[in-house]
Design goal:
Blueprint lengths: L4 E5 L5 E2 L15 E5 L35 H7 L8 E6 L5 H12 L5 E5 L4 H11 L6 E5 L3 H11 L3 E5 L16 H18 L2 E7 L18 E6 L6 E9 L7 E7 L2 E4 L3 H6 L10 E8 L2 E13 L7 E4 L3 H15 L6 E7 L11 H13 L7 E3 L2 E2 L5 E2 L4 H10 L4 E5 L12 E4 L2 H9 L2
Parallel strand pairs: 4-8, 4-9, 5-6, 5-7, 7-8, 13-17, 15-16, 17-20, 20-21
Antiparallel strand pairs: 1-2, 1-3, 9-10, 10-11, 11-12, 13-14, 14-16, 18-19
This protein binds thymidine-5'-diphosphate and magnesium ion.
Thymidine-5'-diphosphate binds next to helix 2, strand 11 and strand 12.
Length: 450
């Protein structure tokens, strides 16, 4: 029997029995989404525990139990392992490596426990061939090629594996709804059903979600607020690094990243990313390059910042950035003009963080400024120096957090000196190799030896 459905405007809540291009209530276009009538639980609701109100002091405080996924980088990003009964969304552009990563995790886990990998995109044979390339096969890994969410639920309830992967949410559908797989109504219903399933059975479910053109998972960020954890797999398609980033986590912090390197046999964990990011650094001091000591979560990351400043041939100067914030570079350029006296107004400016990482911390300001000045003046930056410092609008150099970690990482990788703000709470003298400056102009003198 087909369940009755209704169409609900996502803007104003107006209901309609059939689909309309324009909402009669608020007049917005294309805002009606199909939903089943008489849901026992509202979509997105995960309250299935039947809890009653109780005093805060009597709520148990022990941490959730977690189990390891066997891949340390994923465990780190999840906040120390996978929580039983959690729903984890893995988002990313098509072809970035989501299926590969989760198949690898399933394969590693299947040595210890049952893991069910459900693919709606590939046949079982295709998945098996892919698994063959990724590593040893174990009968603990079960494959299923299915797209009907009710059949998937039945299999999951019958088998009760500790871990399951659903690849991808855009291919799943609920037959009660008339709309096509991948539509907002379908995606939301299927995810809500998996959420209820995870909570009632304790199965941890990884959900793959392709990022659509607009950069959101399946249209309006419908999935992000429903699931427990949201991870994104990022990277430049032409680079061999993949970065796993956590943007939401009900069970831990969100600022950890995991770094992987692509290979013919799947993703390989990178335990020392700084060394990898610096491996192609030009030797012997080339103008326009400076090394930033960034901090991603609790982990320091040394990244080379490259800048190219060249006279504008004709028209408006071009400004381009990759891996660093465009507006931040504009601000640093303005400070360099006004406070240091560099005439950058008639120059094209290109800034790039090498290796395909995205750095959005203000702590990389100083390295950007050094790279820009170095390129403009055609003088190399001190090759053995690493940088961390935020630049203020009056040209002052501000302290950054976690200096000890940054400095330690830089010295571990063979840098002989480290330049930071004079206000940093750190012991500095010539012996330790730690140099300080209070202004950007002062810092540039030290970095470029001018
Ligand atoms: P895939 O996992 O299918 O991407 P997604 O599920 O995000 O769409 O990976 C895309 C292609 O890249 C696939 O043909 C396998 C290949 N690949 C490797 O060869 N090595 C790797 O380490 C990864 C991650 C992918
Ligand atoms: Mg895939």
């Amino acid at each position: 029997m087909r369940v009755k459905t209704k169409y609900l405007c996502q803007e104003c809540g107006q209901q309609s029995a059939r689909w309309l291009g324009r909402c009669p209530g608020c007049g917005s276009w294309n805002s009606l989404v199909e939903e089943p009538v008489n849901l026992r639980t509202a979509p997105g609701s995960s309250s299935v525990s039947g809890d009653v109100p109780r005093p805060v002091t009597e709520v148990p405080v022990q941490e959730e139990e977690r189990f390891s996924t066997e891949l340390g980088e994923i465990d780190r990003v999840l906040g120390g392992g996978l929580v039983p009964g959690s729903l984890v969304l893995l988002g990313g552009d098509p072809g970035i490596g989501k299926s590969t990563l989760l198949l690898q995790v399933s394969q590693l886990l299947s040595r210890r426990m049952q893991a069910l990998y459900i693919s709606g995109e590939e046949s079982m044979r295709q998945v098996r061939l892919r698994a063959d390339r990724l590593g040893e096969l174990s009968p603990g890994l079960l494959l299923l090629s299915e797209t009907d969410i009710d059949i998937i639920e039945r299999h999951l309830r019958e088998l009760g594996p500790p871990v399951a992967v659903v690849d991808s949410i855009q291919t799943m559908y609920k037959s009660d709804l008339g709309s096509a797989p991948g539509s907002v109504g379908q995606v939301r219903e299927c995810a809500a059903q998996l959420m209820r399933l995870a909570k009632t059975t304790g199965i941890s479910i990884f959900l793959v979600g392709h990022v659509t053109k607009e950069g959101v998972i399946a249209g309006p960020r419908v999935l992000e607020h429903m699931v427990d954890t949201v991870l994104y797999l990022e990277g430049d398609r032409h680079q061999f690094f993949r970065i796993l980033r956590c943007v939401k986590n009900r069970f831990g912090s969100t600022n950890e990243i995991g770094i992987f390197e692509m290979s013919g046999s799947g993703l390989i964990e990178v335990t020392n990313p700084s060394a990898l990011f610096l491996v192609q650094r030009p030797q012997g001091g080339v103008p326009g390059s400076a090394v930033a000591a960034a901090l991603e979560g609790t982990r320091p990351l040394l990244v080379e910042i490259q800048a190219l400043v060249s006279p504008t041939g004709y028209g408006v100067p071009r400004r381009m950035t990759a891996g660093v914030d465009y507006n931040r570079v504009a601000l640093i350029t303005a400070v360099l003009e006004k406070r240091v006296g560099l005439n950058l107004g008639s120059h094209d400016i290109y800034v790039n963080a090498v290796g395909g990482v995205k750095l959005d911390e203000p702590a990389v300001d100083l390295a950007i400024a050094c790279a820009l000045t170095s390129s403009f003046r055609d003088i190399p930056v001190d090759n053995g120096m690493a940088f961390a410092g935020e630049i203020g609008l009056t040209g002052e150099l501000r302290p950054v957090n976690g200096v000890e970690k940054r400095v330690k990482e830089a010295f571990k990788l063979g840098f002989s000196s480290f330049l930071l703000s004079g206000q940093s709470a750190l012991d500095h003298n010539a012996e330790t190799g730690i140099l300080t400056a209070d202004t950007l102009a002062g810092a540039l003198e030290l970095a470029l030896r001018v």
